[in-house]
Amino acid sequence: MDNKLLKVDILKELKEFDLDVDFELRRGRLGILGPSGCGKSMTLKSIAGIVTPDEGVVSVITDDENVYFDSEKKINLKPQSRNVGYLFQNYALFPNMTVEENIAIGLSNDSDKKTVSEMIKRFHLDGLEKRYPRQLSGGQQQRVALARILAYGPDVILLDEPFSAMDTFLKEQLRIELVNSLKDFDGFSVMVTHDRDEAFQFCDELIVLDQGKIIAKGDTYDIFENPRKVQVARLTGCKNISKVEIIDNYHLKSLDWGVTFEVSEEIPPNITHIGIRAHDFVSAKEDDVNAFDTKNATKLEMPFEWEITLANGLWWKFDKEIQEHEFEIPEYLKVDPKNIILLEE
To answer: What angle (nearest 5°) sits at the alpha carbon of residue 41, between those of residues 35 and 42?
Structure first.
């Protein structure tokens, strides 16, 4: 039985709102997804000890319990006394130190050589030991930063939007490298991001934060498939969201698009909106369930998809091959009742 546990239950009064975060992580990688300024980084800094909450508890149970912060018991360990590794956006490598010197910076002299050698091998940095950060690619810098963190055996790794300043190609490459690098990490890792793709690719579990409050938490796949709330649907990339009027147990009318839809589950009374993901439309006949016409639709060609904007405001994305440049918009589209997401405000 795995008794490991990261517990975070904190309150902190901020200028714009009160940060109120409460979660437990028993395994794997946790993502905190939310817009800029919602309290994501403040949560990480509270775990690391860079910021002190007004009240609450931060603790890690591995072989024994390590309480980092407990307002009632007056416990507040300094950052250097917490077994936490913090990966900053710019990796914070020392520019005048070589790769091996950067990796060894937090180690005692006795264990330096063997541990540094193991980290260089593990993170595929062979041959780069004597290079300085300026001589490394972005991916190599990231691996050095991770190697430095993992060299001293942290219980928790905190990742603060590590790809936010990168171009798309480098970002995708480094996301894959990061997931692979942390596969064998036996502790907890927590990443904050406003990028839904990062959250989906990296995180086993997900918290969605808005104005300092958790508005969703659970398995990442479950939250993407059934976001339940309007803001969660937006943050997980749902492009089409409309207010609705409930007609009966299985039918409702979109007030923004003027279309009546049938859904696959009984509609609870608290439903105020629906969401339809942009890839979930297919061509249809006029009398199909949930069919509507596409008159006066406009199309925009992208390298690997067509973006179709319908006159009523619905947005459809249709995959294409890069060499295909002609596309005839169907006269009618439809959406499967099971692909209509029921949402509350």
So the answer is: 115
Q: Which pLDDT does position 110 carry in this prediction?
A: 61
Contact between residue 276 and residue 339 where contact means Cβ atoms under 8 Å apart: yes
> Which residues have C-beta within 8 Å of that of residue 214, sequence separation ≥ 6?
20, 21, 22, 23, 207, 208
pLDDT of residue 114: 84
Question: Which value, in Å, is the radius of gyration of the alpha carbons in the chain?
Answer: 24
C-alpha distances out from residue 231 to 211, 223, 245, 308, Å: 11, 12, 19, 24
Among 263, 174, 210, CA closest to 16 = 210
281-283 and 332-335 strand pairing: antiparallel
State the Cα–Cα distance between residues 118 and 152, nearest whole angstrom.
Answer: 12
pTM of the model: 0.86
Amino acid 276: pLDDT: 98
- Mean pLDDT, the chain, rounded, equals 91
Q: How far is CA 133 from the centre of its chain?
A: 28
Where in 26-153 does DSSP place strands (E)?
29-33, 55-61, 65-70, 75-76, 84-87
Token output for 102: 């950067």
* Residues of the chain below pLDDT 50: 1
Pair 37, 60: CB distance under 8 Å? no
CA-based nearest residue to 159, from 67, 20, 311, 47: 47
Contact 216, 189 (CB under 8 A): no
CA distance 198 to 187: 20
Task: Dump pLDDT digits (tens) for 290-341.
Answer: 999 999 999 999 999 999 999 999 999 999 999 999 999 999 999 999 999 9
